[in-house]
Amino acid sequence: MCKRSIDFATVANRSSNVSLNPKRIASVGLGLRLQLGDRLTARFDWGMPLVSVSGDKFTLQENGLYFSVVYSHPF
What we know:
This protein has one domain. The protein has no helices and four strands. The protein is mainly β. A four-stranded antiparallel β-sheet has the order 1-2-3-4, with no helix packed on it.
């Protein structure tokens, strides 16, 4: 299954003694999800920021790539 996404977020401090301004981020992305039976799901997502964020990008996740495998075992 192919998925599309658009994400928006705003972060602000509740404390009045902190001098940080509210920050906004936004991104668009694509993802694939593979369901293998009732218990196993694999997922791969790629996102591209619409707002520039400073900082180093050392990991795949920091570069917009995310992969997960989930196995659900009934109790």
